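Technical annex, item 7. During the second reporting period the consortium partners agreed on a shared format for inverse folding records so that results from different sites could be compared directly. Each record opens with the tokenized structure and is followed by the designed sequence. A conforming record, contributed by the partner at site C, is shown below for reference.
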């Protein structure tokens, strides 16, 4: 993880907000510059961020809203709730995609955004927002779509997701790969998940 953190500690800052126009928006909030802040007198710093210009980096329309977002221009006076939830962001280990990976490397970590529609729908989306400058590679093109989850029984997605790691029971011979091997919890695998609740149907 330290390698991942060092690789991206100076990335551009971005503000992410959901909106009732049917999109998750990303706005520029500054770039990192190495050296002293020219507005600071007599203070040595390793670097500083510019203020940013507020320009839009992207607008993402969740797939579950594609049929409904066309209603926005009708301007019927009826309030529409689309991407109405606040996104949650955390660094997470995604592994190599095999489902059996137990060793971490810097390129398997990502900064992940997970957000719900609240009253706007019954789905959650996940985006890899690690590198705002990525045009390809492990974290691109920015934003890299990871998944969209919906279920008929989910209801409106009012629940604020929690991005965390859990222990899964490991198969025979998997070994204790998710913590202290002497804690007596047996074979287990570490996995990162998004946890959220069901709501109004």
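Designed sequence (site C submission):
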């Amino acid at each position: 993880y330290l390698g991942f953190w060092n690789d991206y500690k100076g990335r551009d800052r971005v503000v992410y907000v959901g909106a009732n126009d049917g999109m998750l928006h990303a706005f520029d909030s500054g770039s990192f510059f190495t050296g002293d802040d020219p507005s600071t007198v007599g203070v040595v710093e390793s670097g500083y961020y510019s203020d940013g210009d507020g320009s839009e980096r992207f607008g993402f329309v969740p797939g579950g809203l594609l049929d409904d977002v066309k209603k926005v221009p009708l301007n019927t006076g009826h309030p529409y709730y689309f991407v109405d939830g606040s996104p949650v962001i955390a660094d997470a280990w995604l592994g190599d995609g095999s489902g059996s990976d137990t060793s971490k490397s810097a390129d398997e970590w990502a900064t992940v955004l997970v957000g719900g529609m609240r009253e706007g729908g019954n789905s959650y989306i996940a985006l890899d927002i690690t590198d705002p400058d990525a045009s390809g590679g492990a974290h691109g093109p920015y934003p890299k779509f990871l998944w969209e989850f919906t279920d008929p029984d989910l209801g409106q997605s009012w629940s604020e997701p929690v991005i965390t790691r859990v222990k899964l029971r490991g198969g025979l011979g998997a070994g204790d790969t998710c913590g202290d091997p002497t804690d007596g919890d047996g074979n287990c695998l570490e996995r990162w998940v998004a946890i959220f609740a069901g709501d109004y149907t």
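The CA atoms of residues 115 and 167 lie 23 Å apart. The longest helix spans residues 2-8. All partners now use this format for quarterly exchanges.
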